[in-house]
Design a protein that fits this description.
This protein has an eight-stranded mixed beta sheet. The longest helix is centred in the C-terminal third of the chain and has 33 residues. It folds into two domains: about 210 residues, Spore Coat Polysaccharide Biosynthesis Protein SpsA, Chain A, CATH 3.90.550; about 70 residues. It contains ten helices and eight strands. The chain is an alpha/beta fold. Helix content is about 50%, strand content about 15%. Helix 5 runs parallel beside helix 8 and helix 9 packs antiparallel against helix 10. About 30% of the residues are buried. It is elongated. One of its GO terms (molecular function) is glycosyltransferase activity.
């Protein structure tokens, strides 16, 4: 009997401590729980600066089921993840990250949901391990997306999940150089089933995602998901312009009626100028984010450039 092939895709960046453990845990899952399925493991390294590649190469020599792709430079989280999902040959692809914060042991549950008919099965963290400040910013980000976007994004979702080949084919048809994967799942995810899980601490002990990376991801998500924010900026600009015009007419009438007694109002004028200037700068920044997003999408650059592939020449089933 031919076994269904499941591709396990693992984007990596500086995960030398996790490679061996992840390989052993996945192998054990298929040996004990998913015995009726075949598998391939694809490590996709985004130009790590530690010994991640050496560890991956070592595992590739041990087991030909394990494959590797090494990027020619660091292309960033979203570009690497989006490209990684397209390398598998399985009827479904399991996306797992190299820091093992998301437990591989969730795969049997995901497969069960997938076999029941769900085209996309995603893991949602039961709680956030972030600071209160970051949790607040995350909460506000999702509120903005909910208010202004046609598709609702999944909170506390990193991409961890099982994706049917039908959905992977949709990904392959998207030519966006700067894809925002979470928005794609929300918009094109077909039958999405959400499974909650507990996330463990990173093997690195420190996240690669600082404030500026999170800000970049948030702006990418907003500009990819909605155009209403630009329309909101236009509306607010028009409203402030109308208020300023009304205030100017009011000041002019009062000055004409009380020519000698009406105060010059230097302070109020100064405050008004700074207020309008701040609003203009804010919305110019929003406009700039959209322009940057459009520019990155129309330049037709490759999403990633591959430096090396390992074990991809072996297409035969391995018992």
């Amino acid at each position: 009997m031919n076994k269904k092939l499941i591709s396990i895709v693992i984007p990596c960046y500086n995960e030398e401590k996790s490679i061996s453990e992840m390989y052993n845990r996945i192998k054990n899952i298929f040996k004990v729980q998913l015995v009726n399925y075949d598998y391939e493991i694809i490590f996709v390294d985004d130009y790590s600066s530690d010994n991640t590649r050496s560890e991956i190469e070592r595992v590739c020599v041990i087991d030909k089921r394990v494959k590797a792709i090494f990027n020619a430079k660091n292309f960033g989280f979203h570009r690497n993840v989006f490209s990684s999902l397209q390398y598998g040959n399985g009827v479904a692809t399991f996306l797992l990250f190299g820091d093992i914060q998301d437990p591989p042991e969730m795969l049997p549950k995901f497969v069960e949901c997938w076999e029941s008919g769900s085209k996309v099965v995603v893991g949602q963290r039961s709680k956030s391990n972030e600071s209160k400040i970051m949790s607040f910013f995350r909460f506000m980000y999702y509120k903005i997306i909910d208010w202004f976007s046609d598709s609702k994004q999944i909170d506390l979702f990193t991409g961890f999940g099982l994706y049917d080949q039908e959905f992977i084919n949709v990904l392959k048809s998207i030519e966006d150089v700067q894809p925002y994967f979470k928005a794609v799942v929300s918009e094109y995810g077909m039958d999405v089933e959400i499974v909650k899980y507990e996330q463990s601490a990173s093997q690195r002990g420190k996240s690669n995602f600082n404030f500026w990376k999170n800000y970049d991801f948030a702006m990418q998500g907003i500009t990819s998901s909605t155009k209403l924010l630009m329309r909101f900026a236009t509306f607010i600009g028009a409203l402030i312009g109308l208020l300023c015009l009304s205030f100017a007419i009011f000041v002019l009438i009062n000055k004409l009626l009380h020519w000698n007694t009406y105060p010059a109002g230097t302070a109020s004028v100064t405050i008004g100028i700074f207020f309008v200037g701040a609003v203009q700068l804010f919305f110019t920044g929003i406009l700039g984010e959209y322009i940057l997003s459009i520019n990155s999408r129309v330049t037709k650059k490759p999403r990633v450039v591959i430096e090396k592939k390992i074990n991809f020449e072996n297409r035969d089933k391995i018992d």
